[in-house]
Every structure is written in C-alpha cells, then in structure tokens.
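Quick note —
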Amino acid sequence: MSLNNRDKRVSHLGKVLLTGAGPGDPELLTLKALKAIQTSDIIVYDNLVSDEIKALFPSQTLTINVGKSKGNHSSTQTEINEILIYHALNGSSICRIKGGDPFIFGRGGEEMIELTNCGIEVEIIPGITSASGCTSYSNIPLTHRGVSQGCTFITAHAEKQLSVNWQALAQLNQTIVVYMGLSKTDEITQHLVDAGLSKETPVALIEKGCCPEQRTIRGTLSKLTSLKQKYDVRSPALIVIGEVVNIHTQLEEHAELDSQFAFLYQQDFGKRPVTPSAVQETI
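Predicted structure written out below.
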C-alpha cells in the first residue's frame, strides 16, 4: 500500500460507540444511546440487549448478533474484536451495544484497548448497570441509612474458582450484588457463611430485571439454591444479598395504613380532619 493510499484509508476510519443499553427497559436508554442506535451504520449487539430495545434498531441498519451466554458463545471475544476492527477500518460507524454498562462486567475495557491499538476512535456511552436498575424495579435500595452504607458488585463468571475476598465481603456490612452467579449459588453461600455472614441474611433473586417478565424472589442466604431450584430461575438474573432486601416490608406496612386511611375517608370521618394520626388512633 502506498503512503498516499494509507493516509486516505486512515482519514476514512470509522468510529465505534461502546454503548450501554441499560438493564432492559427501553425507557431507561439514555438519549445518547438512542441516538447511537438511530444513526450508526452497523449495530453489533449481544444476548443481554432486550427484545424491546432491539425493536428500536432501524430496519435499514446492518445488525450483527455476537451474543454470548453461558455454554453457548456464538462469537468469541477475539472474533467480536475482529468484527469491530474490520468494519471500522472500512469506514463504518458502529454502535457496539451491550446490556447494562459496557464498563461493568461488560468487557468494554478490552474492546476499547483493542480498537485504540488499531488507531480506531472509540466513544463510551454509559448505561444503567443491572445492579442499579433491577434493584430499583424491585424496590430494593442498594444503600439505606442505618442499614447499608455501601454496596459491592462482583461477578461469579470465572473459569475456575471464584477469586473473591469473602472475608472482606462478609465483614463490610454492605449490600452485595452478584452478576452471573446462578450456576454458583452453593459456592457463594458456602463462602459467605464460612466468612461469618449469617445464614439468615436476606437475599433476592431478580430474573429478567427491568423487562415485562421480571420476577423478584426473596428468601435467606441458606435457602439461595433451593429458591433458585423451586422457582426455576433462569439467566439473566442477579443475586442481591443484604438487609436492604427487606426494606420492602416497610412499604407493605405503609400500604396497609394507606388502605385504612382511604376506608375511613370513604366512611365519612365526621367533622374531624382525616389525618394519619387520626387513623392510628382507630387501629
């Protein structure tokens, strides 16, 4: 290749937008992510991009499914990198869209490095990570004053043993969110209990979070595996461990109070204003 031809090719390099699709609900897409979907020449997506978001892909845009799931990799990470590099070197703008956020267990950093090493421009478009979106849709706050002052995200996706400081996790008294942990619930439970975490610690399994099929199953750490089996929980699913899982019980108490309040209002409470304190007096 002549120098002039090489310069011409470099000047027409494409661009890759590493885009976070969020946890599933298309209304949780950022405006910037939606713009990337609508304006890119090519969309490269994986299995964690929901059907509702895929429905937003323009019909005239070339789409490439490189979906990866446990035990069924349609494309290796090396192959995905090669696809992105090939199309970018040929001048295409590419929306590389991933479930959640590309930099939280999404291997976005690896793709960014590979592309940058080839001289390809990369732009990062953050997305709402599953730990945030799915817990919010389940009324589980990741932090709560007096209950949890922090949270830790870990992935259980490992070829061999999990490389996690379980002692530190058990002693932090924080919310733990486990990504890709369904196949290792026994191991997770045993490690945390051995590290000193109570077997009665509340847990939640959130299946297909932020999608119409979302299910949230609550229990205790000792029953994590049995809950998974009893309710036939399937991927994608998150595991949430910590006292914040039970915050929803306070919502139920308030809901009961609200229903009593409404009943008294309907029955004409007389001349006295209907207030929460007045309702409490009648209970």
